[in-house]
Write a structure and sequence with these properties.
Elements (H helix, E strand, L loop, with lengths): L1 E3 L4 E2 H14 L7 H7 L10 H9 L17 H11 L3
Antiparallel strand pairs: 1-2
């Protein structure tokens, strides 16, 4: 299925690029820009981005490396602590 009509990128192209990047660097953070770059292309109009991202999310090799998960606390915790520590 064609995902990006401007650059003629298919879902197979996206999956192949992700698989190739993960095989070459298991710790790589993969984003749409890197996929376009791996395919030798660049985003044009951006109309495909929702489908492009959905296609990426469906790839089993897109997971975040284990050593990078849980590094950032949710924003709600930080805000809650900030509000509690203020004195008026």
């Amino acid at each position: 299925m064609i995902v990006c009509h401007c650059m003629n990128i298919s879902d197979r192209d996206i999956h192949a690029a992700i698989d190739w990047m993960r095989a070459s660097d298991p710790a790589a953070l993969i984003n749409p820009g890197k996929v376009y770059h791996a395919l030798g292309k660049a985003a044009d109009c951006g109309g495909c981005m929702p489908l492009f991202l959905d296609t990426m999310r469906n790839n089993d090799n897109l997971t975040v490396p284990a050593h990078l998960t849980g590094l950032r606390k949710p924003h709600t915790e930080g805000r809650r602590i900030e509000r509690q520590s203020r004195s008026y």
